[in-house]
UniProtKB/TrEMBL annotation:
Residues 133-142 have a biased composition (Acidic residues). Its main location: mitochondrion. GO terms for cellular component: mitochondrion; ribosome. The keyword Ribosomal protein applies. It holds the Pfam family MRP-S23. It comes from Drosophila yakuba (Fruit fly). It is found in: Mitochondrion. This is Small ribosomal subunit protein mS23. PANTHER family: MITOCHONDRIAL RIBOSOMAL PROTEIN S23, SMALL RIBOSOMAL SUBUNIT PROTEIN MS23.
C-alpha cells in the first residue's frame, strides 16, 4: 500500500512518489509538476510542521485607495456593478478620476477637493440620468387604443380558458388527495 494520505505526514511529492512506487498510480497518470519537482527540488522541503518565515508584510496604499475608502465610508455609493462590463466605469472610479483632476490643479485643500469632487460626480450622474430618459414623454394613448388593448386581453383570457380544461372544484372542507397539507389548518389561531 502507498504511504499515508494524511497531509501532516510527508509532502505531496513523497505521497505521489509512494503511489508510483507501489503501483497505485500509473506513470502516465502522474501529475505534470512531478518531473519538474524531481529535477528542481526546493531548498527547504515544504512540510506541514515547518514554521512560517517571519517576514514583515509591507503596507501598500495608493493615494486613490485612501480617497476611495473615504468615499465608501461616508457616502456608500448605491449601484449595481457588472464585472463583465468593462466599458462603463463605476461611481468610485469616476469619483477618483474627478478627485485626481482637481488635485492636479492644486488650488484647493484636501477637504474642499473632496466636496467639489462629490458635487461634480452628482452632476455627472444627474446628466447621465437625463440622457438615459427620453426628453419627450410618451404621448398618452387615446381611449380607443386602450379599449382595444383591453378587449384583446379579454379575448386571450377567454381563448386560454377554452383550450385548457378547467380544474374540477374540490369539495370545500375536504383535503385533496394529492396534497399533503391541509390549508384550512394552517391558518387557525
Amino acid at each position: 500500500m502507498a504511504q499515508s494520505r494524511l497531509e501532516k505526514i510527508g509532502t505531496i511529492f513523497t505521497r505521489v512518489q509512494g503511489l508510483l512506487r507501489g503501483g497505485a498510480m500509473k506513470t502516465e497518470d502522474k501529475p505534470i509538476w512531478y518531473d519538474v519537482y524531481a529535477a528542481f527540488p526546493p531548498k527547504l522541503e515544504p512540510k506541514f510542521d515547518r514554521p512560517a518565515p517571519e517576514i514583515p508584510v509591507r503596507k501598500i496604499f495608493y493615494a486613490e485607495d485612501v480617497v476611495r475608502a473615504k468615499l465608501h465610508k461616508e457616502n456608500r455609493p448605491q449601484e449595481t456593478i457588472s464585472l463583465f462590463d468593462h466599458r462603463r466605469s463605476t461611481q468610485s472610479q469616476q469619483f477618483v478620476h474627478i478627485y485626481q483632476g482637481l488635485k492636479a490643479q492644486g488650488a484647493l485643500d484636501e477637504q474642499r477637493i473632496y466636496e467639489t469632487a462629490l458635487d461634480l460626480l452628482a452632476e455627472q450622474r444627474q446628466q447621465a440620468r437625463l440622457e438615459a430618459t427620453p426628453e419627450e414623454s410618451l404621448p398618452e394613448q387615446d381611449a380607443e387604443s386602450k379599449t382595444q388593448l383591453l378587449s384583446d386581453f379579454k379575448e386571450a383570457v377567454v381563448s386560454q380558458q377554452t383550450t385548457s380544461s378547467p380544474p374540477s372544484p374540490a369539495p370545500k372542507g375536504k383535503k385533496e388527495a394529492n396534497v399533503g397539507i391541509n390549508i384550512d389548518s394552517l391558518f387557525k389561531d
